[in-house]
Sequence to fold (143 residues):
Amino acid sequence: MLNVDEIQKIIPHRPPFLLVDRMDKLEPGIHGIGRKSVTMNEPYFVGHFPGKAVMPGVIILEALAQTGAIVMLSVEENAGKIVYFGGMDKVKFRRQVVPGDVLVLDVTIIKSKGAFGVGNAIAYVEDEVAVEAIFTFVIGDDS
Fold:
C-alpha cells in the first residue's frame, strides 16, 4: 500500500488536483487499485451542482488516469516522467458519485510498447461500477 506522500514521489500532481489518496495494490507496469475519498470539501462541488453535489465525470476519469500513471511511473525506467492522455474510448458513466463515497480506482494496463500504451479503467463505489473507460497514453519526459 502507498500513502499520499509516497504517491507524490511517483506522479507530479499536487492538491487540489491530486485525486488518489492511497494505493491498495500496485504491480508496476501492470495493475493498480487506488482510492479517492470524496468529501464535500472538494473545490468542484461549489459549482457542480449547488444544492446537489455530484462529482464531475471528467474528474473521475482524471482520478483513473492518475491511478494508471502511478502504475506506469512506478516502473523504474519511467521514474520522473509524466504520463499524458492519448485518448479515451468506450467511456460509460453508470452511477453518480457524491460526497461520502469512496471511489475504488482499478486500472489494468492491457497493452504497452515503448512510450505508448492502453489501459482498462473502472471506478467503483462499493460494488457498483461508477465509470469505465479505455485510455490510451504516452509517457513523456518532464522537460
